[in-house]
Amino acid sequence: MKTLLAALPIALLLACSGGGAAKTAPLDLPKLGLKADAPAGSTVGDALMGSGHMIMLPGLVVNVAEASDTQPKTIDDAKKEAEMFSPKNLKDEKLADGWVMTFDNEGGMGKNFFAQVRRDIGGKAIWCETTASEAAQQTNAVNFCKSLKK
Predict the structure, then answer these.
(1) Among 2-16, 110-124, 126-140, where is mean pLDDT lowest?
(2) Helix (H) or strand (E) segment spanning residue 116
(3) Nearest-angstrom CA–CA distance, 143 and 127
C-alpha cells in the first residue's frame, strides 16, 4: 500500500492535469471482469501493483485491482492507516457493497488528494484508489470507483 501510494504521484505527473467534468462512457476492465464509467478517451493500462488496471486521462488517474490482504478491510482500518499522512478533511461514505474514504494533506510537493474505495463486486473484494494533485481529480476517481460493476 505504501509503495503504491508513493508511486501514484509519478503517474500523475505523466498524466496531464485537469479535472473538469467530461462525458462518460462505459470502459471495460478485462483483468477484473468489470466495467466502469470513465471520461471518453480514458486509457486502460496495467496496474502499478497487482493484477488490475490503471486508468489514465487528464483529470483522472485511478488504480483498480482485487484487494490484497494488506489493504484495509474496514473504514476504521483505513482511517488508522491514513494517520501516517496527517490527513485533513477526512470523509467517509458507506456504500451498499463497501466504503469510500477521502482526505487531503500537504507534502513536500504540495497538496495531495487521496481517495480509497473498497467494494465487494461479484464475490470479489475490489480496491480502487488515487493520489491526486487536484481536488477535482479526487472527485473524478471516486465517481469512477463508485461506478464499477459486473
Answers:
(1) 2-16
(2) strand 110-121
(3) 14
Cell of 43: 486509457
Task: Say how far apart CA 128 and CA 116 lie, in whole Å.
Answer: 6
| Rounded Cα distance, 106 and 104, in Å | 7
**How far is the C-alpha of 42 from the C-alpha of 50, rounded, in Å?**
20
* Cell numbers representing residue 117 in the block: 474505495
Residue type, 93: E
* pTM score: 0.85
Q: Which class in CATH covers the domain with range 2-146? A: alpha beta
d(CA 61, CA 131): 8
DSSP-derived 3-state class of residue 138? helix
DSSP line for 35-103: EEEEETT-EEEE-SSSSSEEEEETTEEEEEEEPPTTS-SSHHHHHHHHGGG--EEEEEEEETTEEEEEE
* 68 CA to centre of own chain: 14
Among 139, 55, 126, CA closest to 89: 139
